[in-house]
Amino acid sequence: MCGIVGIVDAGGVSLSLYYALYALQHRGQESAGIATFDDEGRLYKHKAAGLVADVFNTTVLSTLKGNVGIGHVRYPTTGANRPENIQPFNFHFQNHDISIAHNGNLVNTAELRDSYEQRGQIFSTTTDTEIIAKLITEEIRGSGGVEDAVLHCMRTLRGSYSVILMVDGVLYGFRDPLGIKPLCVGKLKDGFILASESVGVDALNGMFLRDVKPGELIRIDGQGMRSTQIAVASHHAHCIFEYVYFARADSVIDGALVYDVRLNIGAKLFEEDPIIADSVCAVPDSGTSHAIGYAQRSHIPFVESLMKNRYMGRTFIMPSQKQRENAVRIKLNPIREHLRDKSVVLVDDSIVRGTTSRRIIEMMRDSGAKEIHVRIGSPAIRAPCYLGVDMPTRSELIASNKAEEDVRHSITADSLHHISIESLVAAIGEERCNLCTGCLTGCYPVSIDGEQSHETVVDFVEGTYQSRLESFGGDNS
User: Fold this and answer.
1) What pLDDT, on the 0 to 100 scale, is given for residue 312?
2) d(CA 456, CA 30)
3) For the whole model, what pTM was predicted?
4) CA dist 466 to 216, 227, 228, 299, Å?
5) Which are the catalytic amino acids?
6) Angle, CA 401 vertex, CA 386 and CA 105 arms, to 5°
7) How many CB atoms within 10 Å of residue 407?
8) How many CB atoms lie within 10 A of CB 84?
9) pLDDT-based confidence at 474, cuts 50/70/90?
10) How many other C-beta atoms lie within 10 A of the C-beta of residue 237?
11) What region, left, alpha or beta, does residue 88 occupy, with left being phi > 0 and alpha being psi -120 to 50 degrees?
12) Fewer CB atoms inside 10 A, N or C side of the chain?
């Protein structure tokens, strides 16, 4: 997960970065940071543990001067929960000021880090983002441009990465050749914005232009935006869970409105395994769109029977299982009048460990529900994710060694059905070969030691880079 944003705007960027990060808060709750650069060549920065609204205030934002800046909200996968791991990372290297923010997870971090350490280099963090910074500065030191540095990254890195980079006040954004993690670009009245999701653009009343293409480099400065294709892969591998859970429902991810995808998922859940019930209930908020789609297709009324405490964050991305379990009762409160003596279709986006589902069902039964039929908007998660989701071992996954009936029994549901991979792919509207389904199938789009993978051919552009310029100007109507 993680949320990243970069803005060039003649009117200043600190407040805009704040609003954009606020819109991306769902992607990371552990820490937040902003770095900006002004016309005098000065770098300003502030970052700390906590939510965006806790880390920044008007006093702090007033100190972040300049017309170029980047921001980050962190969800930890690689690297411990330490202050030094809070992004953006900022470096001063051979008279260059460099800031970097990264969303994704590399699978060859250990070998790259060992290689650098064998050559006597030191690290100040435990994250894979610092590896990317090393590769970029290595190429800059050799008199290469940023285009060459990004080519060097794409040749060397294995895993998922969307990166926003600021070098001496010039903004860059690039995405791995498979496009595993999202990144988009939008136009502001006097500038441009790069963001993990289109809701970051919407928060600034900007105009969403398009997704950054897999293997593409975007360069933005005072003259406008240039796009350069650095690498082209034989297929893509967009993270399937962006559509199921991670992204906000009002985001557009790789051409698909997430809300519509989730409506389609809910409809297909009913078509695959219809059941008669009194009401359809969502596990809010991530299951709401799925449940509405199920209700529309089944003509069973959608009834809010679980009320969410809107001041709670996402329990899935809390750092420990104990915290996730303890948060369920605080986060969700059953509405007894909607559950008493009712048969309910309970729709959620996924079952990972099963403990949360079991607690929710227990709460609903205690409130008088007669039957609870669980419908899940993702196929059973059977394998770990190495590319940016905190479910690293098979032992944590309830479906890794259990049949669906055994999972049903474990969570105490009256019935259970996961959507099939085929129906999920159809709901997204993308070819299966262009989606990462590693956590569902155990076959990954990149080579991972001890795991199955499918071959990807990547062609790289070298030497002369063809780019296209889009200038500033005009309103967003």
Assistant:
1) 67
2) 34
3) 0.92
4) 11, 8, 6, 53
5) 2
6) 5
7) 20
8) 13
9) very low
10) 25
11) beta
12) C
